[in-house]
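request received
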Amino acid sequence: RVAMEASELWVGFVGAGRMAGGLVRGLLQAGKVPASNILASAPSDKNLDAWRELGCRTTHCNLEVVHRSTLVFLATKPHILPGVLEELRPAVGPHHIVVSLVAGVTIQTLQRLLPPWTKVLRIMPNLPCVVQAGAMVFSRGSNAGDEEATLLKSLLSSCGLCEEVPESYIDIHTGLSGSGVAYVYLFAEALAEGAVKMGMPGALASRIAAQTLLGAAKMLLETGEHPAKLRGDVCTPGGTTIYALHQLEKGALRATVMDAVEAATNRACDMAKD
Amino acid sequence: MSVGFIGAGQLAFALARGFTAAGVLAAHKITASSPDTDLPTVSGLRKMGVNFTVSNKDTVKSSDVLFLAVKPPIIPFILDEVGPDIEARHIVVSCAAGVTISSIEKKLSTFCPTPKVIRCMTNTPVIVREGATVYATGTHADVEDGKLLEQLMASVGFCTEVEEDLIDAVTGLSGSGPAYAFTALDALADGGVKMGLPRRLAVRLGAQALLGAAKMLLESEQHPGQLKDNVCSPGGATIHALHFLESGGFRSLLINAVEASCIRTRELQHLADQEKISPAAIKKTLLDKVKLESPSLSVASASKVSLFTNKSKKN
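response:
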């Protein structure tokens, strides 16, 4: 086994869409991998322009990515992947580390479509990887060992939170954080709308709403305190906050959010079966 | 020290039972009075060894600490009746929901220039010495008077001093609280029975679960949210159940309940201040009996009317 210094690592992306773009920006921001060591392929130039602007190399040939990279990220749409893997299979060797970002495709499927000794990992990121505040979970296939897991984690921690999990958690992560980002956008929109109703201009309200979410999340992450405790800390007796929280409880917000996570998780499971 | 209760209903009974069980007071040092000797609690008090009388004045005379343990609308009549017998040594403790210290002091000041008044809000579990009590001291009650009451009430549960303006909120929370708990326990038992448990066992287990949870919370530094999390294994039974509670708006129902009780207490107080509670709202026989004993309300009558001639056929 060759010791892998991140700076000597050749990283490839098969597929250059939004999620892949988020990851590569994180990698580059962290300065772990030089842009010139990164090669991405996509059928058209539409996405690839942005990658070239970052200093990465691009191609229309998936096989070239596999030939020239050690760490290969699979970032195609789910229905395209089987065909792509059939194309790439002959070129995949024991030195490769294949990391799939493809939603709903299990490790079992990946291992079936690739040579039997391939080191496979599966990762589920979320969109804020683009701004290095992502939440990612990954799982190992049978041939991926501690070294590969450590490498992946150290590379991707630059994009946000990156944790190894059993594969069964990946769909839950989708429901919680993959889709979860959208729940937060919805909440932010509603907060701002409430402020607009009470007389604040929309643009200002939106910025404040976003900052409020950011600040609260930061406090959660940095203090490590239970959210219920932090909530209590904000509630002065008989004050504005407790009045507002009562409204949220009346609307069964908690249960609705739980329903949402459940629905997205179940849908992810169903889609994986297809 | 001797303690008296004006009123011999649930509250007097609960407190007397609690004090005697705690050993802070011997039963014979307690006097309770009520014109209505038919109350079920009266025989209970007698069995305890408490001195029972139909004369509120006797209770006042034989007590150092005097609890007003009657329903709020009755308080003004009681104060009129026993006012003349209140001395500077007495500590008058009102347990009546929504009745302010100032309204009591105002009534008593016509008889006694510096009445010691303390307002308290307790709850029925004093009967098993797990009460929740708060008190606020009036204008002429000293720190020692408050401490004396606190000692008494601490023998039957938790007791702390508060600002008077918080007492209505306390009423909503821990005053009414045991009723919320009984309702919850009844329903939990139903759940147990539905799933196959015998009723008695279901009740016992439900009560123990709540008791244990409350004890854990009181002894823990942790937030109840954290304690809840500790019970919820991922994908397990408890989190599934909690989801149902959240869907039903469990939390908001409890918030609503505390709020409603507190608001209603304030309403009643407001009505009382404006003297808007109609006599019809007060049980008629009780009012008549109280009026008969009250000199300030007496109609010209040569002799004192004995209550016994007005009693109903019972007993």
